[in-house]
Each structure stands twice: as C-alpha cells, then as structure tokens.
Amino acid sequence: MTASDVGLSILKRFLHSKSSISKRLTQGNASKLAKRVIACLDVRTNDKGDLVVTKGDQYDVREHTKENEVRNLGKPVELARQYYQDGADEAGNFFYIPGLPSWRFTYAEVGGGIRDFTDANGRHYTSLEVASEYFRSGADKISIGSDAVYAAEEYLRTGVKTGKSSLEQISRVYGNQAVVVSIDPRRVYLKTPEEVEFKAVKITNPGPNGEEYAWYQCTVSGGREGRPIGAFELAKAVEELGAGEILLNCIDCDGQGKGFDIDLIKLISDAVSIPVIASSGAGKPEHFSEVFEKTNASAALAAGIFHRNEVPIQAVKKHLSKEGIEVRTNVATSLTQTVQPSTI
C-alpha cells in the first residue's frame, strides 16, 4: 500500500467513521480553555535609584505623603519568585529587571519603551531592534501602548496598512502571538450614545449626573493625554494591524479594588477574536469569577492585591475552580532565561 493509499484511507475513515472510538470521543463534556490568572509587576526606578515594584492608584504611583515618594511594594525578583511558587500563569509587564534568575513563568511579558529612540550617544534604534533585544533576553511577549494608538489612528484615517508601525513590524517578524497591545481608556459619560462618533454602551452603573451611557476614550503617555479614538475602535484596528492579544486596562477602576469594568471588558472581548486580558480593579476572588462569567475575557490580571498579599493567587484559583471555571492548577516548570538588562 502506498503513502497516498494510506492517506486516502485515513481521510475516508475520518469522513465516514461510525466506530466506537469516534463515538467515545464525541461523548461527555469537552474541555474548555483554562482561564489565566496573571500577576502584574510594574517596575520602575524610585527617587533613590532603586528598582522597585510599584502600583498605581488611577495611574498615580506616588504616595500621598509629604515626601511624595514612589509607592514601593517590594523587590522585583523576590515578588516574581513568590508568584512563580504561588502558581501565577503569567507575569506581565516586567520593565527592565536586572538579575532575574533563570526559573520562569509560562510566559513573561515586557512592556514600556517599545518604540524608536535615540540613545545618549546619538545612535538610533528602531522599535523592532528594541523588541528584538527583549526577545533575545528571554521575553515571550512585548506590549505596545502609545505607539499602537498612533498607528491605529493613522490606519483608521487612511485605511492603509503601511507596514512601518512598531506593531506591524514586530508582529511580522516574531508573529502576532508575541505582540500585546495595552489599551488605557478612561470612561466618558453620555446622556445619549449619539453624542459621539465612537462606540458607546449603556452602562451598568449610571454616571455622576445620572448618565446612562459612556464611551471609553483611549489615552497615551501613561494616561496623561486623551486621544480622539475609542477603545472599541482601537481594539478592532490593532487586531487588523497584527496584535495577538489585548491587555485591557481602565483608568477609572485602577487601584480601586471594586471590581473590573465589566461593561468595557464585555464590549471589547465581544468585538475581537484575539484574547483579551482583563485588568484594573480586582479586589477579591469574586471579581475574577465575575469577569469570566460575564465576559469573554481569556485572562484576568491583578497587581496590588497580590503584592500586598491581601489575596493569594491560589485563593483566586481555588475560588474559580469552585465556581466551575477551569484554571491551570500547576505552574509550568520549563526553564529558560528570563529578561536581563538590555544592552541598548
């Protein structure tokens, strides 16, 4: 029997199978994709020059004290080690962590500074070169923020994919799965959805003046500058430009501990076919089950409640399992090099 005969035989059995094996395979409940629980480490240099894990309160990372120092919730390597041992599925937003050892998470994502820049010596680096350094150092994904907003605005204005944006270049070389777009929207309340040209939704909780609708204005520069584009429009555009995943934040919910913005997350996770990570607002395990039950989010992320040990990662996973939401019970044990200091 030739190889082609074997191939045709397999295809025939696949198309017309009535065997007990095929019947057994179709019986029972299919396994669902496990939801991911992600620990976010926002790392920056404090006023003393030390690298610390910090946490924003609606994106403000400074303590409201006389010293106005950067909020310090621990050392990056120590917290990363703890989250690895606790079973976090991924570690998100490692910003330039020297000395991080070789044990690692299922995925490590690096964000911040993924754009063209010129160093102190006058040498120019493209965003692709910057991303390449991170990937060579062991990062699995990189996240793009402001640059993705500008690229989406240009694409929506012209309808042309130039291939020159950082999003397009990096996804073309490393694949869509390696590029995450971080969206930082702010809620803008409306009396009627017709007030704006952007996608508006009816919100669960009315605004301060009884408004029943809102649109989600995207921002750049760490939430400091609003842009004329909505989260819905941005998400659709970046998917077309090559993003493989969306990290969906919400400035209004950040650091509040009152739960994720379900209206926003449902809007975006229903609009795109790529995975959406819910971020901003987690305060207890029930907030994780709520976002998974009410939206199509593939993962949920938290920072402060993990850093302060208010809610252990395993407590979140046990709660999700109890609610019938499938999660990964064992952390991956594959060992590769994690992000080391960039040479550029």
From TrEMBL:
Amino-acid biosynthesis as a keyword of this entry, yes or no, is yes
Keywords for this protein: Amino-acid biosynthesis, Histidine biosynthesis, Lyase
Looking up InterPro entries in the UniProt record yields: Aldolase_TIM, His_biosynth, HisF, IGPS_HisA/HisF, RibuloseP-bd_barrel
Which molecular-function annotations from GO does this UniProt entry contain? Answer: imidazoleglycerol-phosphate synthase activity; lyase activity
Q: In its keyword annotation, does this UniProt entry include DNA damage?
A: no
The metabolic or biological pathway listed in the UniProt record of this protein is:
Amino-acid biosynthesis; L-histidine biosynthesis; L-histidine from 5-phospho-alpha-D-ribose 1-diphosphate: step 5/9
Recorded catalytic activity of this chain's protein? 5-[(5-phospho-1-deoxy-D-ribulos-1-ylimino)methylamino]-1-(5-phospho-beta-D-ribosyl)imidazole-4-carboxamide + L-glutamine = D-erythro-1-(imidazol-4-yl)glycerol 3-phosphate + 5-amino-1-(5-phospho-beta-D-ribosyl)imidazole-4-carboxamide + L-glutamate + H(+)
Superkingdom of origin organism: Eukaryota
Q: What is its EC number?
A: 4.3.2.10
Pfam name, any one: His_biosynth
Q: Which Gene3D superfamilies match?
A: Aldolase class I (3.20.20.70)
User: Some GO term, biological process aspect, for this entry: which one?
Assistant: L-histidine biosynthetic process
Similarity comment text for this entry: Belongs to the HisA/HisF family.
Q: Which PANTHER family match?
A: IMIDAZOLE GLYCEROL PHOSPHATE SYNTHASE HISHF (PTHR21235:SF2), IMIDAZOLE GLYCEROL PHOSPHATE SYNTHASE SUBUNIT HISF/H IGP SYNTHASE SUBUNIT HISF/H (PTHR21235)
Spell out the protein name for this chain.
imidazole glycerol-phosphate synthase
- Species of provenance: Papaver somniferum (Opium poppy)
**In the record, what lineage is assigned to the organism producing the protein?**
Eukaryota, Viridiplantae, Streptophyta, Embryophyta, Tracheophyta
